Amino acid sequence: MERRSFCYLVTGMTTVAPGLSAAESVVQYGPLRLTFDDASGILLRIACRDEIIAENPSGAPLVSFATGPTPEQVRWLENMDLRRQLVNFSRPGPDRVEVTVRIGDFELVERYKLHEAVARLDRSATLTYRGSEAIKLRGLTVRTAGVRAAGDGFYRFPQSWPPRSYPFSEMTPERRRPRGGDSIAPLAAQIGPKQTVLWLSHTDDDTSVAVLEKEKQFDVVQSIQAQGYLKAGVPQDIGFTSMVVADGDYWAALLPATQQWLSSTGTKVPGDVPAWVRGATLYNFHPGGAIGSNWRDLGGFKAATDRLMPSIERLGASAIWILPVEFRSPYWPLDYYRFMDGLGTADEYRELVTRAHKMGLYVLQDLVPHGGAPSAVHNQQHPEFMLRREDGTTLTYWLNDFARPDWQDFIAKVTAHYMQNYGVDGYRIDAIVGSHESNWDPNIPYPRASMARLWGGLKMLERIRSTVKSIKPREGAVLAEVQSARHWQWSDLMFDFSFASQVCQGWRREPAADYVAHLRDYLAEQNAIQPHGATWLRHLESGDSLRSQLWWGVEGMRAMYALSAWIDGIPMIYQGMESGHAFELKRINDIRRSRPELMSGESDYRAVRCDKPGVFTCLRRQGSRQSVVAINFNYEPVE
After folding, report:
1. How many other CB atoms are there within 10 angstroms of residue 90's CB atom?
2. Taking Cα atoms as reference points, which of 206, 211, 174 lies closest to residue 189?
3. What's the rounded mean pLDDT across residues 338-364?
4. pTM over 0.85
């Protein structure tokens, strides 16, 4: 192999695994040192300040990809029986390494980026197919092999429910623990009393992470669900994934290390979030009525204006979220410019929004960018808006391609229409995670099918919010129906689905003391792995759930609402939830409003402890003001 004096240091002869060259190349930049095998270009070792963090004992390739004509006929690289041939090993800059290999008809470029000030390694890849006819890409993985796992260390998947540690002492060789969910796919391991390693992802495709346990070590597999056609000679750029070595134990390292990584990747809350958002109390309803009545027990725009708006004001709400009003019914948009039958006229809807504004309420309308059904007006006129499955068929619901610029243009016009003609202040955006499936239409105007999902959701959200801010730059806002760190860049508010579906439900499944311990850990981890300033919607019930009183009883429901109102984020009252509880909900809202630190202050879930098991506590701060929240989750009074 050609030697380049500016590229790397070359060590002396060493003992290596069978089949590997005895010559190794060492690259160091900042705190990390990488060791590569000269013959194959495979990463053998990662060290931080002369201490080995991970070692690839078998010398196996650490980047893999899969192809196959159907999802049932997928073959990963390690099962293809193809020879790996090193084409080039280069160092384009002091902080970068590129390894180019030929594997059968594939050319794979593995890229490594080191950082000077922090112990961080980023890895990305470019895959090019050199065959004759297009084939299908089914995914790519990046592995960190042989992470040391001795002593009383552990690994965790932050923001999982219930939160838990997996001790190294209890690992079972070949056991695999996967974790999907959040778009950055976080994993953290405390490998020493004062050393923690984090793995995070930043890609245009959905990601996940898994731990493969071994004897006194483990592998981390960061999976990127990249799917699409590999056309001859057309490169696919994929990545990146990160590994960060941080000083401190798990709780000391998690927040600063993750926040630094988020900031460096541009994963942050917008700088122009309206002041009203963080202190909001949201009321959610449909002008036609509740879902149990098929949206008919209230009566439409005029009835909502006359009967519902005064009671919303009395509850202490400061904003409303109106469920979808376009034809045909909520979440089936067949015509975005026509009202649902029975709701009323344009003037009546305009009066509803005007009345809300006179009461000091901000108005978010539901916006459904997934397109409804094939029979929708827009899909009949523009069938290209609908994504295509591999067999060429379309879906019957959640069927449009979020990543198409022309579909984004269409939704941007809908966004502007209701703001300019009816005065709404922004939108709650349905299913903005992205398209429901990959778009296998060979004529898509972007690199690969899977980018319709995460990347498409991000681009659609950006377009909607940009339109909102162009019309109402000060007060305009969006509430994103997604739970994803990556989406915060274009969100003023975001759903905490786990809070409603798992965290609150946990109280029914475990003793109060255990529940409170898990609750504190969940919220502390959430603060650490989401961008600073993130404002969550904490809802107990919605049109998709049972009534919260049926889960926890009268007092339990009120305790849960107090939790949602007094931790960071904003609470929500769903239409009818106040029945029998109006006085107590108003009292909770009044306490929240009387203390600015409860509305928009910082939250510390580990600063204050109660000596009574089963009592949740947290500290809220804003400037010189401080409040301690205490909520009893025992089934008996506690003094």
Report:
1. 14
2. 211
3. 97
4. yes
